[in-house]
């Protein structure tokens, strides 16, 4: 059996691909829900992601997966309109005339920034159309150095810096130009007359997760099943230990753990599963807890509110906020997807990133965050009607995205940790190369597929064990690392 640690998109994609290749797989998810960072809330209609999500046109693997799962016709490409809030004014930035009318940049600056977003280097007077294809070439350059050299200082100061500040705060001066270029590329597909083209699923990304769970088989996915130990002996992975919390005494639980090829440790509520290979598809701190492999990538946290409102607040889907607000963006989902899908409600995300746990926003409880955010929205939009907010849910995650600093590629976790940890130990989480230079669902699927293909090549045909092992569970590990979404 191949054990997969983590039931986010990467773990599920790995399990799906491994099963396609004929392997016996079991996914262990620490929380009660699958989906990880892409988990959803219920609404009066379709479920919606706790953290805002959309697709970029350049992401093909997720679309292919949807097609494989029979959901190809549910991938929708729509215009996601953008605006920039500067000095008390919302500036829409979609059509050429809106961009021309934007008052905080000169015409020349707009031309230079426009060329950069099209991937054209106009320095020296002769346009180079493929100038920015090799993102890794900009890995050691800061965003400021890059933007000042490839456009102008005022493009950096008046346009890029406030965005970078909103996303990375006091880490902004170390962010690599490779991330910036990847971002430009990720969000670079435009309808010339209407704005940016972004993707979504009819039914939300939960529809894709549900189809993936069905394809993998619910009997092959255990929830509330944190993996607390990974045993390597003689340089080869042997087993995973799962903590089920309460001791499993019922006949049903006994039957289920036997069906998963596990030994019984019912008194402690732990089961140990012999594995031919293990895929760790979690944040790297969990990998470190399980294997001792330390990844030096720093992560930023996210606090993301979802307001259900009777009235629309914005005219755009996405509004970047260029001032010292306690959030970086307002994202009115129902200006992207029609509100009829959510029982007629308007849905507005309020999104903020935190760089360390000492920041005020991270220290505040949810009531304080809600109050600070709604008060700020009231001051930004005097017509905002606070009583029209019928619900305000907040999700937090301490590891929402890597901080893509210079030199990042040297820190990514290898897919196969054979020399670092042991033969048969694989990593498909957010610190893998597929999630560079921007993390995404597509990247998670790519990472899952990559390790599945490597495992398939390594194990080949007929190396499936029946896994009915009888290893005693390892004692004494203090689990503290499930990286699920916290919300209220
Ligand atoms: C605010 C925000 C906005 C985003 N916007 C977009 C977007 O617009 N488009 C896009 O494509 N992507 C977006 N993403 C990124 C996307 O959500 C992630 O890249 C993707 O979900 C990562 O999947 P994963 O499986 O690697 O990790 P995760 O989703 O983190 O899954 C890891 C899973 O492992 C589980 N786990 C942890 N420890 C253990 C353990 N010991 N045992 C068992 N299980 C364990 C966790 O509970 C979790 O379910 C966004 C993310 C955030 C936070």
Topology:
Blueprint: E1 2-5, H1 9-20, E2 25-28, E3 40-41, E4 48-49, E5 55-56, H2 61-68, E6 75-80, E7 82-86, E8 89-92, H3 96-101, H4 107-117, H5 143-150, H6 153-168, H7 177-186, E9 190-191, E10 195-201, H8 205-216, E11 221-222, E12 227-233, E13 236-243, H9 251-259, E14 262-265, E15 270-274, E16 277-280, H10 284-291, E17 299-309, E18 318-321, E19 329-332, E20 346-354, H11 360-363, H12 366-380, E21 389-402, E22 425-427, H13 441-459, E23 486-487
Parallel strand pairs: 1-2, 1-16, 2-11, 7-18, 16-22
Antiparallel strand pairs: 3-4, 5-10, 6-10, 7-8, 9-10, 12-13, 13-15, 14-15, 17-20, 17-21, 18-19, 19-20, 21-23
Bound molecules: flavin-adenine dinucleotide.
Total helix count? Answer: 13
CATH topology of the domain at 2-32 and 223-294 and 406-487: FAD/NAD(P)-binding domain
Average of pLDDT: 88
Task: Give the cofactors and ligands.
Answer: flavin-adenine dinucleotide
Query: Regions with pLDDT < 50 over 5+ consecutive residues?
Result: 247-259, 462-485
Strand content: 15-25%
Distance between the termini: 36 Å
Superfamily (CATH H level) name of the domain at 2-32 and 223-294 and 406-487: FAD/NAD(P)-binding domain
Overall geometry comes to globular
Helical percentage: 25-40%
CATH class of the domain at 2-32 and 223-294 and 406-487: Alpha Beta
Biggest sheet, in brief?
8 strands, mixed
Strand order of the largest sheet: 8-7-18-19-20-17-21-23
- Indicate the CATH architecture of the domain at 2-32 and 223-294 and 406-487: 3-Layer(bba) Sandwich
Radius of gyration of CA atoms, rounded to a whole number:
23 Å
The secondary-structure class comes to: alpha+beta
């Amino acid at each position: 059996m191949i054990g997969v640690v983590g039931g986010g998109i990467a773990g599920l994609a790995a399990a799906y691909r491994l099963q396609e290749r004929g392997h016996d797989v079991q996914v262990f998810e620490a929380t009660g829900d699958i989906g990880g960072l892409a988990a959803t809330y219920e609404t009066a209609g379709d479920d919606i992601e706790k953290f805002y999500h959309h697709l970029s046109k350049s992401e093909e693997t997720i679309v292919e997966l949807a097609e494989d799962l029979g959901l190809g016709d549910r991938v929708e490409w729509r215009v996601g309109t953008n605006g920039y809030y500067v000095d008390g004014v919302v500036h829409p930035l979609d059509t050429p005339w809106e961009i021309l009318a934007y008052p905080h940049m000169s015409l020349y600056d707009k031309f230079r920034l426009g060329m950069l977003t099209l991937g054209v280097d106009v320095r020296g007077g002769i346009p180079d159309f493929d100038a920015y294809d090799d993102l890794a070439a900009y890995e050691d350059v800061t965003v400021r150095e890059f933007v000042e050299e490839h456009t102008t200082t005022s493009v950096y100061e008046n346009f890029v810096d406030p965005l970078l500040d909103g996303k990375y705060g006091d880490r902004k001066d170390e962010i690599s130009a490779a991330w910036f270029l990847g971002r430009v590329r990720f969000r670079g597909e435009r309808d010339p007359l209407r704005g940016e083209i972004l993707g979504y699923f009819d039914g939300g990304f939960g529809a894709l997760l549900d189809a993936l769970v069905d394809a993998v088989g619910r009997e092959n996915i255990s929830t509330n099943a944190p993996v607390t130990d990974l045993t390597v002996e003689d340089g080869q992975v042997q087993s995973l230990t799962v903590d089920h919390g309460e001791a499993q005494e019922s006949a049903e639980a006994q039957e289920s753990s036997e069906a998963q090829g596990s030994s019984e440790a019912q008194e402690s509520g732990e089961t140990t599963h012999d594995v031919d290979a293990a895929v760790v598809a979690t944040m790297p701190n969990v990998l470190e807890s399980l294997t001792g492999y330390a990844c030096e990538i720093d992560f930023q946290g996210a606090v993301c509110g979802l307001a259900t409102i009777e009235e629309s607040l914005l005219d755009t889907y996405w509004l970047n906020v260029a001032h010292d607000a306690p959030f970086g963006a307002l994202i009115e989902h129902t200006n992207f997807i029609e509100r009829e899908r959510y029982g007629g409600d308007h849905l507005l995300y309020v999104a903020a990133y935190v760089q360390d746990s000492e920041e005020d926003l991270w220290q505040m409880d949810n009531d304080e965050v809600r109050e600070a955010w709604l008060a700020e929205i009231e001051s930004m939009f005097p017509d905002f009607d606070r009583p029209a907010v019928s619900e305000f849910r907040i999700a937090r995650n301490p590891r929402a995205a890597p901080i893509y600093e210079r030199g990042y590629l040297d820190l990514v976790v290898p897919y196969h940790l054979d020399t670092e940890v042991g033969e048969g130990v694989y990593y498909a989480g957010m610190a893998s190369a597929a999630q560079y230079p921007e993390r995404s669902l597509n990247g998670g699927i790519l990472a899952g597929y990559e390790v599945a293909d490597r495992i398939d090549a390594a194990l080949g045909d007929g190396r499936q064990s029946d896994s009915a092992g009888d290893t005693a569970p390892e004692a004494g590990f203090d689990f503290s690392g499930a990286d699920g979404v916290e919300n209220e």
